């Protein structure tokens, strides 16, 4: 499973993952993972449709296993971004995520 997470200067986040939404709530679940990771409202997280030009070689979408696989991929991507942003965040301890 793979995920691409992009953070924009207005504080919104775009998540692209390799799973296919088939009514099982996958997009909702990965949105919640990203929102929780960045401590932002779910309304600030947007989901891009699955596309192999963004996230190649995705795993099969299969029942609740997809939530685990793609949720973990999104969390990993968010954690990588947060670690890169630590120096900026440490200089602005009281700033919101968007700031």
TrEMBL record:
Gene3D superfamilies: Aldehyde oxidase/xanthine dehydrogenase, molybdopterin binding domain (3.30.365.10). InterPro entries: Ald_Oxase/xanthine_DH-like, AldOxase/xan_DH_MoCoBD2, AldOxase/xan_DH_Mopterin-bd_sf. Pfam families: MoCoBD_2. Its cofactor is FAD; [2Fe-2S] cluster; Mo-molybdopterin. The keyword Iron applies. Belongs to the xanthine dehydrogenase family. Residues 1-91 form the Aldehyde oxidase/xanthine dehydrogenase second molybdopterin binding domain. Keywords: 2Fe-2S, Iron, Iron-sulfur, Metal-binding, Oxidoreductase. This is Aldehyde oxidase/xanthine dehydrogenase second molybdopterin binding domain-containing protein. The keyword Nucleotidyltransferase does not apply.
């Amino acid at each position: 499973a793979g995920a691409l997470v992009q953070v924009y200067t207005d504080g919104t986040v775009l998540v692209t993952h390799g799973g296919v939404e088939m009514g099982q709530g996958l997009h909702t679940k990965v949105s919640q993972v990203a929102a929780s990771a960045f401590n932002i409202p779910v309304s600030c997280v947007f989901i891009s449709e699955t596309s192999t030009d963004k996230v190649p070689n995705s795993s099969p979408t299969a029942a609740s296993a997809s939530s685990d696989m793609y949720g973990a991929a999104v969390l990993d991507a968010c954690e990588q971004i947060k670690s890169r942003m630590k120096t900026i965040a440490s200089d602005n301890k009281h700033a919101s995520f968007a700031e």
